[in-house]
Design brief:
The chain has 418 residues and is an alpha/beta fold. It is 44% helix and 17% strand. It folds into 2 domains: 144 residues, Rossmann fold, CATH 3.40.50; 153 residues, Rossmann fold (3-Layer(aba) Sandwich), CATH 3.40.50. The strands form 2 sheets. Strands 9-8-7-6-10-11-12 form a 7-stranded mixed beta sheet. Strand 3, helix 3 and strand 4 form a beta-alpha-beta unit. It is globular, with a radius of gyration of 20 Å. It starts with 9 loop residues before the first helix and ends with a helix. The relative contact order is 0.15. It binds nicotinamide-adenine-dinucleotide. Nicotinamide-adenine-dinucleotide (NAD) binds next to helix 7 and strand 7. The site of nicotinamide-adenine-dinucleotide has 26 residues, from helix 7 and strand 7.
Length: 418
């Protein structure tokens, strides 16, 4: 992946966006200081017993950014590049995201510095259980609720829930993104990708444009990228490129997304699909298309390659895929960026629906889940759009301004700063 001005620590990049939004809403210096920094940072060294009998020490983090509007909430990722600055940035993004879609959560994030591909399933389970144990006093259905992120899935959530429940009693609401048999919600798995499509569609409607026939290039074909590709294909958009860590596929006429999914589900790597041209991950970002959707890791659009982006719209399905320098360059070139804090908020919104059902011990039909998701994300887009018009700001500036206003109000009224 491209680097460039990504050397700005991730949490400082998020704070730049925060400062811009704080200027828009004329937030006091005192409140800025309080909201830029995480409430709590937990760093642990996890001993993992390998199948060989050896112990491997692995670093793990949980950063709890803000809980003024509700319990801390955010995913846990397993990746070798995880570091504290990135987890801080991701935790802060969660605080603004939950406020933008107006759900009763704060923001947190976790990460373990590991390539899970290097571990066997029993090793992964032991690591997950030990990590959970080490942070469990700071977790809880009304305290901090993890969810899946990069390289973690429903199985990992099941282990976290089981380990936590061992001590606290049966607690399905302590994590979201669980398997359906353990209180997971039908619809949660594809909620992030689906939510991104609702946001894109609402944007297009506002600009008298159509999803049908739009050319979309997607980087990342995991939970988010795949669900997005599937839904775009189903709605008649032309998915012209997809990629994952193995490489990419390109067809200007539109890829056959269901066949690619079948190919992967059969156990084959994405880049061995033969009914499309190969493309590398850097070239995918510079393809001629209507919508470019980074849905893997950040930051991939930097001041080094922003001038080469030919899309009309960048749909930030991943977290912080565009650096602040690139954001400015794209704006100067008239390319609209739909920001991560809005675009991928479908994931945490779906998590909210799952958590709600868990604590009420009442299940919704899948249709209700999807309808509520659609209503909330379309409304959130319209609010951000209206705020951008009011402030003559970017959509990102407006989204952060909405989030910041709501969090600052809750922080003030709870008397956090007194
Ligand atoms: P995932 O682990 O399911 O998938 C990640 C995808 O990215 C995989 O296809 C992987 O092969 C690909 N990838 C990894 N490294 C790559 C590289 N160097 N070049 C190209 N592709 C690469 O993760 P996910 O849950 O789909 O998350 C993707 C992004 O969406 C992350 O930024 C995550 O924080 C964000 N996000 C996820 C959720 C969620 O509900 N899962 C919610 C909000 C935001």
């Amino acid at each position: 992946m491209r680097m460039g001005d990504s050397e700005l620590p991730a949490h400082e990049a998020v704070n730049l966006y925060l400062e811009e939004a704080a200027d828009l809403i004329e937030l006091s210096d005192e409140m800025r200081g309080a909201l830029e920094r995480p409430a709590r940072e937990i760093a642990v060294q996890i001993p993992v017993r390998l199948d060989t009998g050896e112990i491997r020490m692995v670093r793990g983090y949980r950063v709890q950014h803000n809980d003024s509007r509700g319990p801390f909430k955010g995913g846990i990722r397993y990746h070798p590049t995880v570091d504290l600055s990135e987890v801080r940035a991701l935790a802060s993004l969660m605080t603004w995201k939950t406020a933008i879609v107006d759900i009763p959560f704060g923001g947190a994030k976790g990460g373990v510095e590991i390539d899970p591909g290097e571990l066997s399933v029993p090793e992964l389970e032991r690591m997950t259980r030990r990590f959970t144990l080490m942070i469990s006093s700071d977790l809880g259905p009304y305290r901090d609720i993890p969810a899946p992120d990069v390289n973690t899935d429903a199985q990992v959530m099941a282990w976290i829930m089981d380990e936590y429940s061992d001590r606290a009693g049966y607690s399905p609401a302590v994590v979201t993104g669980k398997p359906l048999s353990l209180g997971g919600a039908p619809g949660r798995e594809r909620a992030t990708g689906l939510g991104a499509v609702f946001v894109l569609d609402e944007f297009l409607l506002h600009h008298h444009l159509q999803l049908i026939g739009s050319r979309v290039a997607i980087q990342g074909f995991g939970n988010v990228g795949r669900a997005m590709a599937w839904e775009l294909f189903r709605r008649g958009a032309r998915v012209t490129a997809v990629s994952d860590v193995t490489g990419g596929l390109h067809d200007p006429g539109g890829l056959d997304v269901p066949s690619i999914c079948d190919h992967i589900d059969g156990g084959a790597p994405l880049n061995t699909f033969t009914d499309a041209d190969p493309i590398d991950n850097d070239t995918l970002l510079t393809l001629e298309c209507d919508v470019l959707a980074p849905a893997a890791l950040g930051p991939v659009i930097t001041s080094d390659n922003a001038a080469e982006v030919k899309a009309k719209v960048v749909l930030e399905a991943a977290n912080h895929p565009v650096t602040p320098g690139a954001d400015r360059l794209l704006a100067e070139r008239g390319i609209t960026v739909l920001p991560d804090v809005l675009v991928n908020a479908g994931g945490v919104t779906g998590s909210y629906f799952e958590w709600t059902q868990n604590i009420q011990q009442f299940t919704w039909k899948a249709e209700r889940f999807e309808q509520e998701l659609e209503d909330r994300l379309r409304l959130a887009y319209r609010e951000v759009h209206a705020k951008a018009d009011q402030y003559h700001s970017s959509l990102r500036g407006a989204a952060f301004a909405i989030g910041l206003t709501r969090v600052a109000e809750a922080t003030r009224i709870r008397g956090y700063l007194s």
